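Re: weekly structure request thread

Next one in the queue (78 aa):
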Amino acid sequence: MSPTSPTDRDIPEGKISKADIEAKLAAIQGGVVQVERDVKSLVIAAGIVVGSIVLAGAFILGRRKGRKRSGYIEIRQL
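Done, posted below.
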């Protein structure tokens, strides 16, 4: 391994304590939580947009079908 590999830089000198492990896990978890929040908000926004498009499409198609099926009755007075 080269002296600048990531595994060599991450190894502290001496013993690894419980606090070192907890600090590293907290740093990793903090990054994961931030990514989770970002993705969650993106998924919610995309769901709202897709739902709106589906609802608008159903409304337009239903309105068009209703126009085709309904007849126009003209009443004239004699």
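The CA atoms of residues 27 and 77 lie 84 Å apart. The radius of gyration is 31 Å.
Next request, please.
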